[in-house]
Amino acid sequence: MPETPEVLWSPDPAATPRIAAFATSVGVDPHDYDALWRWSVEEPDAFWQAVWRFFDVPGDGSPTPALADASMPGAVWFPDVRLNYAEAALRLPGRADDDVVVVGRSQSRDDVRLTAAQLRDQVARARAGLVRAGVGRGDRVAAYAPNVPETLVLLLAAASLGAVFSSCAPEFGVQSVVDRWQQTEPVLVLAVDGYRYGAKTVERRAEVERIVEALPSVRTLVWLPYLDPDAPAPTAATTWDALLAEPGELAFERLPFDAPLYVLYSSGTTGLPKPIVHGHGGITVEHLKALGLQHDLGPDDVFLWFSTTGWMMWNLLVSGLLTGSTVLLWDGNPAHPGLDRLWRDAAELGVTYFGTSAPYLLQCRKQGLRPRDIVDTSTLRAVGSTGAPLPAEGFRWVYDAVGEHVHLQSVSGGTDVCSAFVGASPTVPVYAGEISCRSLGAAVEAYDEHARPVVGSLGELVITAPLPSMPVSFWGDTDGSRYRAAYFEDIPGVWRHGDWITITERGTCTITGRSDATLNRGGVRLGTSEFYTVVESLPEVADSLVVHLEDTADDDRGDGAGTLLLFVTLADPDGTDVDELRRTVARELRERLSPRHVPDELHVVRALPRTLSGKKLEVPVKKILRGVPADQAATRGALEDPAALDDVAAIARER
């Protein structure tokens, strides 16, 4: 049996988190999370009814039944209720009219603070402006805008009408935006003139003009002079101030549970991004469960999750309003002028829940940053991590450098459900390097190659029962074929997510990379995350990416081991001895993992291909190495650095 890892945090037995009150309300021992999870997946109808009632979701009709049809795909949730996400969000439980509930901090302008009354007033005004622009139920409204209060106000105003929202961060290039919005055909677009990213000024006027020209559906362009308050609006555009010029009624169209709320998009690295439609009901109950129970957010919290509007974590962040939390919308470069910037701002603004990405935490660790030595972290009760697996070293850094008192919540899920399948609970301990538990209501299993559940060994992450926030549909996928192919093609009736997962007997789990990027050396599957933990701990390495090329019939060696290729970028390109680095990497991987993990080739590149949300692209790199042209293997506009494919293509040609 593998050794049980170190316990880094344990629940306070005297604490009374909301999840404990919820467990008590349904007759489950509040200290027995496993029992609560099992009940939640074995009795989904009773569980989701209990969530609805515990949070007193505003709506019409009866929440019984919660799950009328458990088919996958095709589940039918809450058929007899009507609700509106914006109404639930603007209820702001536990908050007074003069409480600040939204804080916008930006490197482009001064802070913006909105009280509950001001937020409701702005949404009502924006709603009236949308109506004047002819926007109604079912119309699409889009934002080419950063993580600022105006984007949130537009989402809530559109939702209140039953219009369908989507957003792209302004760092997205023209083609990336057009690839997304040409599928959903927005009638109104909010756009900024530009933004500042650290010390860098980025103009966006020309890009906005090209985007609107490429989208004949757009009837109204709403101009937000974010970079330069005096920047004139483009011809025929209206302004954000004009949209909000007239007061309006704060009204909400109560809609069927699966009425479209917003469209999120997959990364689009290998074709058009999938337009994933999420519903008012699914997002409302899932985010109440995730934020209110798993994260224990409430009216006393200030909630930050560093994100752009092009990542689903933005949608989760703004749902903090559902729990009455103050949401901190932070826009800019978190590493400018140093990695301590985000920690300093969090301390200044009284953040209680600090969410970020695993790579950011690991970079802080690598640079020797210790937030507790530079700011007061005593008000910080939780740190959230997602976007990539966080290794044990990252866990230990949080408890050493941030504080022993914080609850580290490593979570993993996806844009597909706009939430986490696996994560944390204030009633379970934190083990070094392990995600604490499976999320309530998420019937997560690890399947072996014979589609059998396994415990204690690597398997395919699957969901065996429906979740309310599974997509309503893909936009334009009239027969559902694209949706079924994305999740249900391999194992009928079971959602295959595409990650490798190991579930322990303790109920914890580890995610070890994408299953479509498997490293299979001589029949032994190797997860990519463990490579990155070792390689990126080396001071010489800034970033890394590993792929495995299986043997072909023409390979001379033919021993089944294939070829393992490691690509790295260097922290100091001019001062690194690459041959010495190869020896160091081989030694560290051999000693810390196994001889199978030692790469056959190590290549230094200028940049590695990552999506705009920071995910590594192992599969497109593998395709390029197999001879697929770079522009066919990945959509350049979906990458942080479109030229990052060129180094890989050059190596492929040399090989």
Detailed description of the structure:
30% of the residues lie in helices and 23% in strands. By secondary structure, the protein is an alpha/beta fold. Helix 7 packs parallel to helix 8 (205-213). The two termini are 42 Å apart. The model has no long low-confidence stretch (mean pLDDT 93).
General shape: globular
Q: Rg from C-alpha positions?
A: 24 Å
DSSP helix fraction: 25-40%
* Spatial strand sequence of the major β-sheet: 6-5-18-17-19-20-21
Counting DSSP E segments of at least 2 residues, the number of strands comes to 35
The tally of helices reads: 21
Beta-strand content bin? 15-25%
Low-pLDDT parts are none
Give the termini separation. Answer: 42 Å
Topology, please?
Blueprint: E1 7-9, H1 18-25, H2 33-42, H3 44-54, E2 67-69, E3 76-77, E4 82-83, H4 85-91, E5 100-106, E6 112-115, H5 116-132, E7 140-144, H6 149-161, E8 164-168, H7 174-184, E9 188-192, E10 194-197, E11 200-203, H8 205-213, E12 220-224, E13 238-239, H9 240-243, E14 255-256, E15 260-265, E16 275-279, H10 280-294, E17 302-305, H11 312-318, E18 326-331, H12 341-348, E19 353-357, H13 358-366, H14 371-374, E20 382-386, H15 392-402, E21 407-410, E22 412-414, E23 419-423, E24 430-431, E25 437-438, E26 444-447, E27 459-463, E28 473-474, H16 481-487, E29 495-503, E30 509-514, E31 519-521, E32 524-526, H17 528-535, E33 541-549, E34 563-570, H18 578-592, E35 601-604, H19 618-625, H20 630-633, H21 644-654
Helix pairs in contact: 2-3, 4-6, 5-6, 7-8, 13-15
